[in-house]
Design brief:
Distance between the termini: 116 Å
Number of strands: 2
Helix content: over 70%
Radius of gyration: 49 Å
Order of helices and strands: HEEH
Shape: elongated
Structural class: alpha+beta
Strand order of the largest sheet: 1-2
């Protein structure tokens, strides 16, 4: 599509360049003293015969250059696409790694919490056992005191 547009543009410029146009403006004073202005445009086509072989050669040159430009544009677009795809793949890998790191850290934290809870449970049992032991000793003392 872009090649066709460029070719049409070149042909239209070439056609316009082969046409000669002249504009003439004439002012006439009327008997009543007013002035009338007349503008005339004369368009002349070249009076000589156009060499079609030169036109065809120019068209081929234009077509070749348009094809080259189109190929360069396509190559640049492909390179940009490849860079975008590579960046997207790297980003995906980075996100997957970050997700895995978060999962590993969460597992570590979970294990730490579980270990801490088990330790706190042991400490609570030990404190309860000591507290019960003290309560028993106090009860014995109270019983001894009451029996006296």
């Amino acid at each position: 599509m872009k090649k066709q547009i460029l070719a049409a543009l070149v042909i239209s410029v070439f056609t316009v360049a082969c046409t000669k146009s002249t504009t003439k403006t004439e002012q006439v004073e009327n008997p009543d003293g007013s002035i009338s202005t007349t503008t005339t445009t004369v368009t002349e086509s070249p009076s000589h015969v156009v060499d079609t072989s030169k036109i065809n050669e120019a068209k081929e040159n234009v077509k070749t250059k348009v094809d080259e430009a189109g190929n360069k544009i396509d190559d640049a677009a492909q390179k940009a696409k490849d860079k975008i795809d590579a960046t997207a793949d790297k980003t995906k890998q980075d996100l997957n790694k970050a997700g895995q790191d978060i999962k590993n850290e969460a597992n570590k934290v979970g294990k730490d919490i579980k270990s801490g809870a088990q330790e706190a449970g042991k400490d609570a049992k030990e404190a309860a056992r000591k507290g019960a032991s003290k309560v028993e000793e106090a009860a014995k003392k109270v019983k001894e005191d009451l029996s006296k």
